[in-house]
User: Fold Hsp70 family protein from Rhizophagus irregularis.
Amino acid sequence: LKICFIFTKRFTIPQTRRNEATKFLKGATTYHLIFDTLEDQRDLHYDDEKVLIVHDQKIAILICLFITYESKICKPGREGVSKIPTALEYNETYTQVINWGDLSLDEELDDTIDDLNKRSRPIELFKLHLSNLKEDQKPWLPLQLDYRKVIVDYFTQMQILIKSTLERRWPTISFLQQVGLILTIPAEWPPHNTTVMRECAYKAGLLTTLNSTHLEFTTEPDVIALYCLNVKGHNLHYGDSFLVADCGDDTVDIITRKFLQNNRLNEITKRVGDLCGFTFVDKEFLHFLERKVGIQALEKLKQCEYGQVQYLIKRFFSTRIRFKFNEDRECFRIYKLNLQHYCPSLPQYVTGEFKEQMEEVGWIVKLDFESVKGMFDPVVDKIIKLIDGQLNDVRERCRAIFLVGEFSESPYLLSRIREAFKDRVSIIAVLALPIAAVVRGAIIYGLNVKPTHDLSDELDNLNKIKTISSRVFEKTYGIKATRKWNPSDPIERKLSDGMINIFLQIAKQGNEIPIDTGISMIFSSNFISRNSIDLFITDEHDVKYCDSPGVNLIGTLKISTPSTIKNSAISITLFFSNITIKVVAQEVDDKTGWKYETLFNNISY
Assistant:
């Protein structure tokens, strides 16, 4: 679950210079994920400075990019390494953060602490608590912590690092007044989670007020679309459709778009996603070990010696297998895993028949081709099923499948996808620098979108980038309406006045809508002044009532019309923009010039 922050100093940059910076960032030969120097520094001459700090929790990269005369990288805990895990280490009572990032997941085996009760287990993958996973499938958390507190603590550590870094470089910057935050979120997150993230950012000291306009949300597929527009070498033409699969550590997001003139894209399918990133391959590896040493033994190792589990995954599975395994059975060599080397404490937890078997083989576990394939297949099969569903929804031939994200660099994943779809799609490729796709797209977004100061900016930002031409509704939207009850309606729903409340559909799942087009409804001013309007969202089809299973209330719209407006027709228009819905109410004949605007946040459509 990827979170990307862009911090931009709030000043005006001339459009010519903005374009120059954007063009510079797009160059694959000059813009690298890790900067020691900028090769084209001589080409940039800014009187003002702009600061972009991108933090991507999915691939755990933290970059400080200074588009002036120098660049720096902030990597707490380890110089020269680009990845910073979204992990925290607390004291033994889980009341204070000791380390974060790499330092919280020290890969070296530590025997200095003899009392196991004084060892705290690092907190990892806490982002998955924001997902739709069942409770028993969510990552472990100690009883002393809930996931919101962990997110706040992580943001707090990030905030400390960012502020100190900016202070050294730009001591005159007022962080809370001059720095904007753009947070990218997975498309499949439940709608309420933007509220959770905003609250956590506020509590961590990243915002002065809870509703600060210095924090904006956008979705990962949108910034990936920006990145895809600038990828060359695949000979896409106007009118071609292509599928993008963002395969990360936790989630996989898939969407199909059509390439239009003037560098614009149409969404032609609704986004789909699932929890099937590479960390789930890691879990299959651990399940394999459970069958060798016993579930209880491995759980005890996690509880008491979690660092050894991390050491095993990082130094053995990730390094030797995860991104090297492919379908070439003939070239495959059997891996021999010495458990006593990677997990020296494990034997003391293994009992009974498991212990006898492991002692017979000298605590060596062999991983043959079928064993490793069995770790990948359950996860890869899910991804292939998602892609197949998308291609089936496209009414025309899809020309290309592009893979981005860290898991996309798995040779096995690529070969399986090519084998599955080679007869349906002519181009199947991993884009250049796939791990940085969201980061690079977010940087382009940050350079081209002005900070939001009022509601009208929300749509202006999308129009300014002019990338997404239309969207496809992922949900069905409706309002509560009242009509006359008839005999075919349930008798128990009949109101005392002979009416019935129903779900009135205003936008249907799967339908396409231009990005700058709204959905309008007409009400009388008398009705508006006396009643509120409830807006609902659902994944269900053929919904009849607002309290039906799977129907959720987004919000309630209460509009106060001025006393000068009587017996007038009021137009209420909903503009669907990114992850928000902008509501505009005004008189149809515009006699008084009255206009009302508000914003529904936390929308995933």
About this structure: The chain has four domains: 4-221+440-468, 233-277+376-436, 279-375, 473-600. The mean pLDDT is 78. The domain at 4-221+440-468 is CATH 3.30.420 (Nucleotidyltransferase; domain 5).
